[in-house]
Amino acid sequence: MTSSQVVENNHQTGKVYFIRHGESTSNERNIFAGVLDVDLTTFGRLQARQAGFDLKKKEVKFDAVYVSHMRRARQTCEIALAESQALKVPDTPIQIDHRISEKSFGIFAGRNLNLLRLALGYEGFEEMLHSHNEAPPAGEKIAQVYDRAASFYEERVVPHLERGENVLVVCHQYVLEPLALYLSNLPPTAYKHLKLPNGKALSRDELVKFRNKESSGAASLRKQINDLSIMWAILLYAAAFLLGCLLRALSASEGGIPSVLFRAIIVACLAASTFYTYLDIDFAASKRKVTATVKYIVYGWMLVRWTVGLFLIFSGILYQSPGDLYKVMWVLFLMVPPALTSPVLSILWGGNLYPSAILSRTLSIITPVALIVTFGLAKQLPINSSSLIFFVIILIVGLAIPGAIAQFWRDKSPVESNHHSKNWKFIGVLAVAFMAFATGFQFTVPTFTSDLFSATDVNSSLACLQQLAVATLVFLLIRIFAVLTSVLTKGKLNKAESQDAYILLVNPNFFLWAALFIGVSTTANPAAVKYAIFWAALGFFCIPLIEQILFMNSFGNELLRETLRSSRLATAEIQKLFLELDTDGSKALNRDEIMELLGRIEDMTTGERSSQEIRKYITDYLFATLDADKNGTVDLQELEEYLSTYGLVANLNIVPGIASAVASRV
């Protein structure tokens, strides 16, 4: 019988509570952090305060507090204790123990979860990340985390409990999940990944009950549906659109969906998608995370498009008769703002998220006003600015209201709202898929099959092929310019920001554009208008699938190269770093010089150096790892062996032997 079982049967024991850190910047952007040190987001700090409220309500006072050495856990601990005042003795030292630091994800650290799932396949991803005996290259197995978490619990927590003392533990998801297994007297082979909420204080019994509930058949099925729907979201959208097209073509229905019903479907589906997307975005804080460079690029390109577009519209070059309306349509397609679904693509494709969310929203507010002014001046066009009313409804009912509700819920219930989002996000994905289906059915021309293949109506067939050619040209041009922009701004934007800029430049808001022309009847070439809308809709829903395949292949090749590399850092880079650290010219690094190495790692990740006590703790263990021959110094070969395997990170999860917790004021 283990010590934890003995404690469980002892009625005079204390209590232990566990808190997973609040939302970090990596959680928000859907990437793995692992041993990378990242900060809490503003929302994560709100969750940490909520954890403090939980502790205050439980009226528990702690004799001992243990926390991971990682910044996001320390920040959560500090905020929760400040809010709850839950220390039995105010100056109780906070104990740091590296054994409860996050699992090491090896070469997967810093990478997008969805792209990893696509590259590895769902089963491969689950096997490598959530199997007890598999690990990413240079990463940890769940069984290894289980062992160190159990060792920590037995050596640090149990003695307090046996003395009737209360203990608080603040750490990470991939530590608490294996620990929940251990506390349930289950082996690591029984591990299942849970969606443990950020910033929620759970007692030992509550943690075990949560594991049992989330490991049940229904919860596991929901998790799988959620993961698969997000993973294949772009494919679902394209397939749903094509299914709608097929049904309309086979039915040869002239009327389609009643206009009022179709618009209601679009608004309702966008509202659901917006709600679940905005549950994961903190707009108040995101504004500060959008760099001036990406703003200049996106706004600059929109200004260029508008300048050229207005010239073509008002010069009379394009529109000389009602039959030329389709030409104006395609120019306006370049002038509408990015789609409201741009943040979804950013999350799925490893973007920065913040530019997609902020800039698409800003442009969606400004552009309709500019369009109203344009149509008011361009009276020769058979377009009534009142057609923008539908888009105004979309902005209010499909964006503003659900977005405000989502943001309000985030502020009032940061833990529950976040947990709901992680478990039920598939509702938003399926809503967009249904919208794609309805759009495909509504805008497919009933005579599409005959126009494309048999040409029974020459004029209609000509319009079909003509608009296909124009649509192909337009979609290619905007992507060529977006790629050139990415190439020319290389070094000015990081990879994630560059991805966001690309998404914003190639993803025009189809529904705003289509709303301008749905009601247009005074044209000499109605077939051209209908086919322009159809091919634009096809490109809007289906081209992202092609792009995702290209992104996935590029990501997979990059991952393969990383796996096959003999070193995570080039030898020349390691030698240069060694010389910079070796300030005394001894050709060996001492503890102070390794502490400077840690400082550089912190500068690279969080941009802020930890306190002297924290840095000393991490340095001691990092030095123990680097000093393989135990001669008291670290030579170039030892530094090269570590950095070539793990990269420029402070990975304490490979430290052998028994840990000793270090007291610190976090």
Automatic annotation (TrEMBL):
The chain crosses the membrane at residues 230-250, 256-276, 296-318, 330-350, 362-381, 387-405, 426-445, 465-489, 501-520, 532-551. Its EC number is 5.4.2.11. Signal peptide: none annotated. The keyword rRNA-binding does not apply. Keywords: Glycolysis, Isomerase, Membrane, Transmembrane, Transmembrane helix. GO terms for molecular function: calcium ion binding; phosphoglycerate mutase activity. The record marks H172 as: Transition state stabilizer. GO terms for biological process: glycolytic process. It holds the Pfam family His_Phos_1. Residues 569-604, 620-649 form the EF-hand domain. InterPro entries: EF-hand-dom_pair, EF_Hand_1_Ca_BS, EF_hand_dom, His_Pase_superF_clade-1, His_PPase_superfam, Phosphogly_mut1. The active site is at H21, E102. Substrate binds at R20, H21, G22, E23, S24, T25, S26, N27, R72. PANTHER family: PHOSPHOGLYCERATE MUTASE. Belongs to the phosphoglycerate mutase family. BPG-dependent PGAM subfamily. This is phosphoglycerate mutase (2,3-diphosphoglycerate-dependent).
